Amino acid sequence: MKFAKYQPTVTPDLPDRQWPNQRLVKAPLWVSVDLRDGNQALANPMTVEQKLKLWHELVKMGFKTIEVGFPSASQVEFDFTRRLIEENLIPEDVTIQVLVQAREHLIKRTYEALQGVKQAVVHVYNTTSIVQRERVFEKSKAEIKAMAEQGALWVKNYAQAAQQQSPVSQFIFQYSPESFSQTETAYAVEVCEAVMDVWLPTPENPCILNLPATVESTSPNRFADQVEYFIRHLPNRASALISIHTHNDRGCAVAAAELALLAGADRIEGTLLGNGERTGNMDIVTLAMNLYSEGIDPELNLSNPDEWMAVVEEVTQIKTHMRHPWVGEVVYTAYSGSHQDAIRKCLLKQQADEPWQVAYLPIDPKDVGRDYEAVIRVNSQSGKAGAAFVLEQEYGLKLPKWLQIDFAPVAQALAEKQGGVISHKNLYQAFLIHYALTEKKPNISNYQIGKAGEMETIRLDYEQQILEGRGKGTLCALCDAWQNSTGQVVDVLDYAEHAMHEAMDVGKNARAMAYVLLDVDGQKKIGLAMAEDTVSAMLLAVLKGLN
Ligand SMILES: [Zn+2]
Prior knowledge:
By secondary structure, the chain is α/β, with parallel strands linked by helices. The chain has three domains: 23-300, Aldolase class I (TIM Barrel, Alpha-Beta Barrel); 333-435, Helix Hairpins (Orthogonal Bundle); 444-546, Double Stranded RNA Binding Domain, CATH 3.30.160. It has 18 helices and 14 strands. The strands form three sheets. The protein has an eight-stranded parallel beta barrel with strand order 1-2-3-4-5-6-7-8, surrounded by eight helices. It has a three-stranded antiparallel sheet with strand order 9-10-11. A three-stranded antiparallel sheet has the order 12-13-14. Helix 6 packs parallel to helix 7, helix 8 (220-233) runs parallel beside helix 9 (253-262) and helix 14 (383-395) crosses helix 15. The relative contact order is 0.07. The model has no long low-confidence stretch (mean pLDDT 93). Residues 37, 212, 214, 245, 247, 276-277, 281 line the site of zinc ion.
């Protein structure tokens, strides 16, 4: 590996940096650049119809600023912008944003695309980084700064002309020193100051200065230093909104954006699920959900991923990774028995009105439309807890510990036989069959329970014979009756019962469930039964155990 070929990005010295002491307390202003940056990174760029579909979804999710394209660069982008304006598809509280290079004919064309718009951000950029200046543009610092000033002037002058034609139009100006993260920070300040001197923003009518990590080239802490340095050295900072636009080349776009917010930024540009050039843009879903999981209102509605993810996947033709933070298919799933056991215990204790405290689940999966089928997947590694959890959560069966242990190998064998994960329904069916819960026999329709002093007595018809016995309570009386008839010594080791709702596949009338663990002549026997009432369930469970 030829590491000596590379050198670190230079970032400013900032020994008195303040950002490490800050905390995130509110959501930033979000800007979706899915329709622009996301779109330009696609092998097959979106059609106007696909763009419209994604646009509606972004509006529905609550984005208030949406970068819709680069209308001077392609006819599709131009047409899409026109369609939004002409068909009145932009809600009152939503602002569209368009990108343009600092070149006059492109700026002119951009305002043509915006004709009649109520409010738009005109986002102009030129590149400022060392490598771009020296190797791509072959221009000096002064020449690059002059390009920015000239671009700012065209943006301002054409805006005035557009407003004369259409007085309803309001324009907000945005400037990006493209590849800010690879620009000397003091020089980036100098260029942005020059742009502000052209636009003359005020705290009431601020401009936007967008700081891109066009290529992520340093660690998030050093990017935060760049942002804090920029903000502290920018004259008239109150007249600019500071926007951040990170890419994910080093896999830290979200972290860099979070630390940039600590460093004082106000606004974040990114895309849903991180689609964008190369490794992608900053993923807004991840950052918003990070805030959400700490109790901060993300100011976006991400509660229905099934809907918005389907749209994103359709228009980008990119499938979401199964382990994508917060929304991947298996990110709330536990396969291992110890994780399942911990989750089950926590969920049983979790009250609806208290803060979420569940091991292995940073948020309640239900908040993003996931049910517990996804949480607990029973496979051959799951052990007793997974099966017990599923039977309780989905079918209302509260298995005693000894029964969980007894049933675990059955579930495991089924998982191995099926070569992977067992569906919850298959697991339940296996449980019913293994413990003969669907069988109608034995029939105990005819029994009488009575009292004889302290003792209870029982008499029941069983397989064409009469069983009679007495004991402390019905259970003991039944065991006594069995012993009288068969000579087998029966001891009840454990007994549990609970009420239930209608039991699936057993019958509407099965409202009571009983579990009994017996010792019959030194051998352990298990009996389970569902019946209309608890006494019938108990008697049936014992007789099933004895059989
Ligand atoms: Zn970008």
